[in-house]
Amino acid sequence: MPLAIAWTECPPDPPLWLQLREPLLQLLYQPWLVLPLLGGFSWWLSRPLPTQARLTALVALMLLLALLYSPMGTAWMSAWLEQQLPVMAPRAPRPSVPAVAVLVGRGPQVAEATTVVAASLVRAGAVSAVYVSGDAISTAQSLERRGVPSDQIAGDSCARTTWENATRTAAWLRHHHPGASVVLITDPWQLPRASAVFRRQGLQVQPLPAEPSFSSGQRNRIALRETAGTVLYALQGRF
Q1: N or C: which end of the chain has fewer CB within 10 A?
Q2: Rounded CA gap, 2 and 25, in Å?
Q3: Phi then psi for 52, rounded to 5 degrees?
Q4: In terms of DSSP bridges, do strands 127-133 and 153-156 run parallel, antiparallel, or are they unpaired?
Q5: CA distance 91 to 181
Q6: pLDDT in the model for residue 203
């Protein structure tokens, strides 16, 4: 009988603050809502200024914000995020403990890309196991279909943030693969923030991007999301 995937299921109901996160992000993705709201708020804040100065500042602000939703804005945010990738210490050429590949929940399109990369690492003998954090078990099953043995796959559906991805993965590694380094595989936009957070858990991290098949609109939304997430994590001192 084949071995089953070691998987941890968690209750599906997220805390209230997490339930509010997605509606707020959906608002961020709608320029026709965001721009008037920010414009009105900026106009109210600039009351002490002369009317002409207020209008000039408002127009400049609206143009700048509108650029964020353009291909130019996507390219700018993507380049800025890439610059946030932390400098990693070089790995030993022959580590005593085999590395473990880690995938984080980012939706089916990202999972399609990351499972291909992870399965190729397993076939090449570059990693000894794959851990899937904060995703549906279907991602683990996709690894199976790509030839990764069940006993080399584990994961959870519990982590709901990048911080929880890192803390839960670190706890699992300490128990099952103590001393193992991490080959962190996710989309290029999340990779800098995730790498920094995983490193904060004392893990040796090798970032490895997996490029999903995104439309230009999807690329813009994920760039906006990760730019906001990176700024938030920096303000929280999680880097």
Answers
A1: N
A2: 41
A3: -65, -40
A4: parallel
A5: 9
A6: 95
**DSSP element (H, E) containing 76:** helix 71-83
Structure-token pair, residue 6: 């070691």
Q: Pairing between strand 99-104 and 6-8?
A: unpaired
Give me the amino acid identity at 59: V
Q: What is the sign of the dihedral through the CA atoms of 138, 143, 144 and 149?
A: negative
User: How many other C-beta atoms can be found within 10 angstroms of the C-beta atom of residue 202?
Assistant: 9
Rounded CA-CA distance 135/137 in Å is 6
Percent of the chain at pLDDT > 90 equals: 64
- The domains found in the chain, sorted by start residue, are 96-215 (3.40.50.620)
**17 or 1, greater pLDDT:** 17
User: Which residue carries 């008037």 as its tokens?
Assistant: 36
Let me know: does 210 contact 117? Beta carbons within 8 Å: yes
Q: Is 169 exposed, middle or buried (0-12, 13-18, 19+ CB in 10 A)?
A: buried
Q: How far apart are CA 101 and CA 156, in angstroms?
A: 14
State pLDDT tens for residues 91-111: 554 557 899 999 999 999 999
What is the CB neighbour count within 10 angstroms for residue 110?
A: 25
Predicted model pTM: 0.86
pLDDT digits (tens, 9 = 90+) for 203-231: 999 999 999 999 999 999 999 999 999 99
